[in-house]
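Incident log, structure service

09:12 report received: a user says their structure output differs between two submissions of the same chain.
09:20 pulled the input from the user's history:
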Amino acid sequence: MALLLTFQYISQREKALGLMAEPVPVLVAKQDLPRLTRLDEAVVEVRQVPRQYLQPGALAAVKEAHNQVTNTPMLKGEQVLGTKLVAYGVETGLAIKVPKGLRGVTLSVNDVSGLAEVICEAHLQDPTALNLRGTIQLRLDRPAQARQDFLAAIQAGPGHAQAHYNLGGVCAGHFKDTACAREAFQRYLELEPS
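09:34 re-ran on a clean worker, output below:
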């Protein structure tokens, strides 16, 4: 009986050790890779390694690394782990997107001025968007552009009461144009009598 149990134990251990030594595919770096390197066949390759040496989260094929870049530097021969990659363009920022030989630059755009343009690009004839852009222009101390936006909002939506009110405010406060202000406020009161 003891001999049978010993034989069974040894057979199970041999089988387990055989599985651990079984070769499995793993993606490895062909060369040292700096951070933000885009992965393709030129920089990574598939090798066979014993299962016991397979890192958790290691990729097994080049297609798994498609459209990915390294988030940290990698050494030649290092297994490519999914945790060391990010999707191209999502978390990599502008630098990776600028073609070689060109440079990216930043422009001063605050939240308010950037928002004004984004809103109206998407909604060129929307009176609410035009009114909002006019309000933002006022906040940026651009009363002439604000007046144009309020007039455009009224043209796009003659019943937009808030645009009339805002036009009255800019005419009175910035241009001292009492006729424009009176007409705009009167129209506002007609649309919003309460």
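09:41 both user submissions now match this output. Likely a transient worker issue. Closing.
09:42 reviewer note: Strands lie at 23-29, 44-50, 68-70, 85-87. The radius of gyration is 33 Å.
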